[in-house]
Amino acid sequence: MGGAMPEPGETHLMHRSLVFQPHKVASASGFELTLDNGRKVIDACGGAAVACLGHGNEEVATAVYEQIKQVGYVHTQAYTTQVAEELADLILDGSPFGLEKAVFLGSGSEAVEAALKLARQYFYEKGEHERLHIVARQQAYHGNTMASMSVSSNLARKLPYQGFCYPHTSTVSPAYTYRYQRPSETEAQFTDRLVAELDAEFNRIGPHRVIAFIAEPVVGATAGCVPPPVGYLRGVKALCERYGILLILDEIMCGSGRCGTFFAFEPEGVEPDIVTIAKALGGGFAPIAGVVMHRKVVDVLRQGSKAFVHGHTFQAHAISCAAALAVQKIVRRDGLVERSAAMGEILGTLLRQELAQCRSVGDIRGRGLFWAVEFVKDKATKEPFDASILYGPKVQEEAFERGVAVYPGHGTIDGTAGDHVLIAPPFTVDESTLKKVCELLRDAILAQEAVFLA
């Protein structure tokens, strides 16, 4: 057997980049990662806002081990497991906000894909077969599968697949106050303009052709922890109700307690039709995501085919459900959603204090333990750095060298221009660790300012 071997120092594992070799983590415990060279790094972003309990939790490890001994895998076409049933019952106890059923899958992208299919099936069952269109927002991210990528705005990830995506999609402006609210507008006027734009888009397509509007309640990595202006989601929901369009809220990154309430949409006063959850659901101890659906959606399936025409081999996997069930029991027992809200207030205050003198910090925003710092070349004009500089990734790299991991963002404004970093520590984080994170981030920013704002 012939064939080329990997380059010297490489293995056969395909990393995300063929140029950059990722750091090898030897172990992880609490808030810290230990690299194979012995260096310790504070994980201030939970990987990608995932590790809500930190690393190495013994209770979760025990729960997973006990589940493996009982049953590791069964096919959900014929079987279920106690842990899968318990997880759904725990999350949807009392059918909060009318949410009645849950489907558990392996990733956030899978969950969004399933949510879009569920929305289409809802209308198929109702006989509204002409509904094929999905409206999303610019500067949003919903996943890496073909349909979920089709409603996303991450240009770098979509570039090779132009003409290869789901065609019946369109986008409206982001609900992104720092960049898109006009100087002459009040917040209420900005909200009204965004809702009017969505109304116009529904009517351009024909409301009877639209399946759903999909949005992140608090935008995640693509634009950097952007909460909506007051009244925005209520206005969107009212529009969807008027035209019989479904509202899908993507809480893959911002949900499951990350923003200080279990569902990130809770402060907005709306009842979505479908919600996607992941990341903090299982805390990274096993791959798991979920789609939760309103009784309105379930009732249409009950009256029609009596099935969700969708399935995966590893759907509701017992090991993943056991891990997530253990995580969610700890979250509830220890009041960690409330802690996320309280520690988030502290994190916001510390960021504003420590970064006050940083000339490149344009905006600090977030909710719960989900915060971002957006960078600018000029605070007065909000002019971003030249895209070729990769200022956000450079700050992230500098922070890593100083001992703290934050999540970088580039193309913040429109997919090309703009930079930010994201901070999303475990819900168990303490104030002294948050202060150290903010100090190290400050030092990293000042170091880059000395180069690019000299």
Automatic annotation (TrEMBL):
Record keywords: Pyridoxal phosphate
Domain of life from the UniProt record: Eukaryota
Family in the record: Belongs to the class-III pyridoxal-phosphate-dependent aminotransferase family.
Organism, scientific name: Sarocladium strictum
Stored Pfam families: Aminotran_3
NCBIfam families attached to this UniProt entry: PRK07483.1
Any one GO cellular component localisation term in the record: cytosol
Protein name: Aminotransferase
Cofactor(s) needed for function: pyridoxal 5'-phosphate
Matching CDD domains: OAT_like (cd00610)
MF-aspect GO terms: pyridoxal phosphate binding; transaminase activity
